[in-house]
Amino acid sequence: MEGSLIRELDDFRKKLANEREVPSKILDVLEALPKSTHPIDALKVGVAALGSFDPDLPGIWGQHIHKKKEANLRIAIRILSKMPTIVAYFHRIREGKDIVHPRKDLTHAANFLYMMWEREPKNIEAKLMDLALILHADHGLNASTFACLVTASTLSDLYSAVVTGISTLKGPLHGGANEQALKMLMEIGSPDAVREYIKQKLERKERITGFGHRVYKAYDPRARILKKYARMLAKETGQEDLFNTAVEVERVMIEILGTKGVFPNVDFYSGQVYYMLGMPMDIFTPIFAISRASGWIGHVLEYWEDNVLIRPRALYIGPTGERYVSLDKR
Ligand code: ACO
Fold first, then answer.
1. Does residue 299 have an active-site annotation?
2. CATH code that applies to domain 177-276
3. CA-CA to 171 of 20 to 30 Å: which in 5, 10, 21, 44?
4. Which pTM value belongs to this model?
């Protein structure tokens, strides 16, 4: 890498590391939530609340917010850096454990695991988390990124755009699929039960989570990479049954729906990797959000360089020429 790029990366890493802690009042907000709150909702609340504490926001909010590049970059760093802290803090609060403050000497991925687990991750654990964060960082105009752009295009702020992104990612047709896919594998239980399970689900016209993609009509390349690590972790953690069940689901699904372009997507194997790393299932989608926030913010900052309000029109196809009937005559 060129010297200037190395310096830029180093500077970026330092800035991220310096912004990891959240204001103490954010802890009060997280503590006020019911412990049953899904962590993706806690993240949404945490990021929304964080906006109120940002020193740059009051000064730039308004008509020209999209032109305040320097302030928006500082805000971007704060959001990216503090999102893992919010997820880890809420997780420990709901478990009744003391929070673990972030450390500046660890990488973005290693620090997140450290705050979750209260121990430094092994090199391989940190590498795998890093890999997962890289694979999920950006993916064009997926539903959540598009939703962020809609919010940002009104000249709302970055915090609001990211809250929109988290809310949109949450759904099981998008980032929520990683949690649902693992639940499905557990429900199936063993490779022998796969064919009947899939058959019945498809007969009921239900979707198989972790398969299909609006853009990829072939094997999602991210899934291919994650599958390799899921296999490795399965061996190490004695979860071969889970992995073999997944491989059988993949085989049966491709046999039945491959001709329609339905293949495993990123969410099918990512959940297995997180699970075998020891993550609770409901933390999978927040991990996706921690990573994808970089894509959301990158797209918003680029869009703001030449901002146009996103406002589609709908084509009405119902009856026309209807007459108003007063309430007492209906
Ligand atoms: N299970 C069963 N059948 C499926 C699936 C699936 N997961 N995905 C697509 N199909 C079928 C559809 O029923 C359709 O069949 P038809 O032509 O007989 O009606 C055909 O494949 C084409 O599907 P579309 O609906 O056109 O695909 P679309 O692009 O609209 O949907 C989507 C993409 C929403 C992701 C879909 O594949 C799905 O629901 N997948 C399951 C949820 C999931 O895993 N989401 C995560 C996606 S990755 C991500 O967001 C990070």
1. no
2. 1.10.230.10
3. 21
4. 0.96
